[in-house]
Amino acid sequence: MGLGSYLIYLALLILIPLWAQSRVKSTYKKYSKVGTSSHMTGAQVARKILDDNGLYDVRIEETRGKLTDHYDPRKKAVRLSTDNYHGSSMAASAIAAHEVGHAIQDAQDYAFLRFRHALVPVAGFGSNISIFLIIGGFIFGMMNLALLGIIFFAVAVLFQLVTLPVEFDASNRAMSQMVSTGVIRNDEERKTKKVLNAAALTYVAAALVAVAELLRFVLMFVGMNGDD
């Protein structure tokens, strides 16, 4: 790979995630100003969907930060950032419903969610140490060390890929639940989908970057082995 091609490659690795984040923030900002017909807050939306699915034991908690919303499977808690917890916008409702989608996945033993949870320890370790092993292996000509690093990195990439169906499924569940429970009307679906689709872009971007990096390391490994 020439210097020019490499610089373009690096630029894409940086620009793709930035573009995805920009889309999320702009879409969230736009639909944070658009209310729903039900006028429910994010916390109320989450509670209603949880209760309608029999998940009375799942708590709803307010958490600090902006767009820090998540579901904690260990504590059985849906955590919503302050704006989404108290807000009654289209964005707040969509994000709250999405996180509840993860709670429903957890309750139903959704296979991809279970697989992702199983990957967390190895993927976390692999993402932290893999680069050092790969670079060290290449610098010192220790190809077995580089290969070990690539394997660890591949597990981290697998985690990113498994995250995609988990997130898309949670969004699909969110849309279905919001309509069936009366949180939004049918004519509000299109706007709600825009919020969910924008959020999904961040996961797609992360997966694309991870796969590209893995391919680069594999090609470098193959090339260096071919030179021996």
UniProtKB/TrEMBL annotation:
Cited InterPro entries: Zn_peptidase_2 (IPR007395)
Coiled-coil ranges from the UniProt annotation: none
Keywords attached to this entry: Membrane, Transmembrane, Transmembrane helix
Transmembrane segments: 6-24, 118-140, 146-168, 195-222
UniProt name for this protein: Zinc metallopeptidase
UniProt source species: Thalassobacillus hwangdonensis
